[in-house]
Amino acid sequence: MLNLKRLHLLRQLSILGSLARVAQAEGLTRPAVSRQLSLLEEEVGATLFERDGRGVSLTQEGRRLAGYMPRLFGLLQEIETDIANRKQQPDQPLRMAGIGSVLIGILPAAQAELHVRYPALAIHVEEKESEESLQLVVGKQIDIAIYDAHLDISKVAPMLDVYKLCSDSMVVVCSKRHHLADARSISLDSLRAEHWALNQASTPYYDFILSRCADAGFQPNIVVSCRNMLAALTSVVSHNLITIMPALAARSPLVNEAFATLELEPPLERDIHAACLRGGGRRAVISSALRALRNAAREPRAGG
Prior knowledge:
The chain folds into 3 domains: 4-67, Orthogonal Bundle (Arc Repressor Mutant, subunit A); 90-166 and 270-298, D-Maltodextrin-Binding Protein, domain 2; 167-269, D-Maltodextrin-Binding Protein, domain 2 (3-Layer(aba) Sandwich). Helix content is 41%, strand content 24%. The protein contains 11 helices and 12 strands. Helix 9 links the parallel strand 8 and strand 9.
């Protein structure tokens, strides 16, 4: 009988297109992936992939075998879903990963809702950048990835079911004693003369802000560059600076009565999506988790 794990690696290779990407998605070394695929070739008795100047490509025999994978692993997914859904309480943890603002603004309420239906459910959460979260889903190391939809997911899209959770706007945060504090909204261009604190822990977020400022014709005067939200907010208060952060992150208790929150006009928005393996949403616990995430994403932000 053909080895299912090796067939899974071939399927990953057919989608991701390189041994390095497969190794990263599966949490393996590149030589380990290459060795397992070579063993699969021995089982099949044919060459399944070839290395070329651009990476790796499947041979005709490899493409033919990979063509069976959606049906094969779709059936396995159905079997696993049927077994899981017959249990009143899940016996395996629900594993999720997402960007930091989601962990702050969505996950606490979603976890509370899930525990009403599944009191004994263990929920494991990791803070990961969007690309890494999706790789973990593809490698079946987590169940749900929550990510910034600006990311191009075309390479892994055939393996995923994707759900929009919400649109997340960027907001300006300053201290209540800042001269902008009484404004309800402000344009990005109006911030060109301000002194900024900016959290650069997330490269995509940091680059997004700098890119939008460049589109508006200026480079922000960043006088405090830090690696976490607490440091940015502390600098905002102590040095009377401004910062920009996702509205989801501004749901944090750290953004308390000492701060004013201003909407940007026109808004700077990004969509937040959740993804699971294709067909995974038919599992009751994953379906419940996706519903809880959508409900939590819709909750209004307190304060302002």
